[in-house]
């Protein structure tokens, strides 16, 4: 028997659908058949639409454009996710805390904070992490690779965000502005440290005495100058 309006049925699992085309696509999941092949590389897929999107990687075509900024991409689904950065929509919610994300994948990675799972492991040291991207970045500490290069000077970095912050030294851009005084800076980290001057927060505390400070570098200097000299 077939559900109403779904006359096409899979002989492997009982899946039913409305068209022969949908059934053909579904059965390829069982057979492993990937009839659509890229002429530029060894990519293959089950749907012609997926191949069409893939080809844009080679051609550089990005037909889906954001109406809020100059972002563009090769797939509508990717644009849909991007638009959430403007709307603030975060439809995927963590079931343990109040975290929410723009994609199902972001919540999946977040959940590893709660479970403690770190499936990506470095084969050079005992480092492990929650995402393949973080492992790739970490691996550059071993290889010395710094693929992000400044076009104005010889600076290079392991991660793109560090280059973005560095470029502000050349452009003079200081997007982080203090609401208490005229201070502004190039990075959120620097801004966060500055704000502690106003709040009085000193999260870095010496384990040997009652000294505390606003940033880790100051604590390291204190330890060298005070306690290492005392030990000598």
Automatic annotation (TrEMBL):
InterPro entries named in the record: Znf-C2H2_CTCF, Znf_C2H2_sf, Znf_C2H2_type
Subcellular location(s) per record: Nucleus
A GO MF term: zinc ion binding
Origin: domain of life: Eukaryota
Signal peptide start and end residues: none
Domain C2H2-type: 8-35, 36-63, 64-91, 92-119, 120-147, 148-175, 176-203, 204-227
Record's protein name: C2H2-type domain-containing protein
Lineage, top ranks: Eukaryota, Metazoa, Ecdysozoa, Arthropoda, Hexapoda
């Amino acid at each position: 028997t077939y559900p109403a309006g779904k006359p096409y049925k899979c002989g492997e699992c009982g899946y039913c659908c409305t068209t022969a085309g949908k059934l053909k696509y579904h059965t390829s999941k069982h057979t492993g058949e990937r009839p659509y092949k890229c002429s530029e590389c060894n990519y293959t897929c089950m749907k012609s639409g997926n191949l069409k999107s893939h080809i844009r990687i080679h051609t550089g075509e990005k037909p889906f454009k954001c109406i809020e900024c100059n972002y563009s991409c090769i797939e509508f689904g990717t644009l849909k996710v991007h638009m959430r950065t403007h709307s603030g929509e975060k439809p995927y919610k963590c079931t343990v805390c109040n975290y929410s994300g723009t994609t199902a994948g972001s919540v999946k990675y977040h959940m590893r904070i709660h479970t403690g799972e770190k499936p990506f492991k470095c084969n050079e040291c005992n480092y492990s992490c929650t995402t393949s991207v973080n492992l790739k970045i970490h691996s550059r500490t071993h290889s010395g690779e710094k693929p992000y290069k400044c076009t104005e000077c010889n600076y290079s970095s392991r991660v793109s965000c560090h280059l973005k912050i560095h470029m502000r030294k050349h452009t003079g851009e200081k997007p982080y502005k203090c609401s208490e005084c005229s201070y502004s800076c190039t990075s959120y980290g620097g801004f966060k440290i500055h704000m502690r001057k106003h709040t009085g927060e000193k999260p870095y505390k010496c384990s040997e005495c009652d000294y505390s400070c606003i940033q880790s570098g100051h604590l390291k200097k204190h330890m060298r100058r005070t306690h290492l000299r005392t030990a000598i």
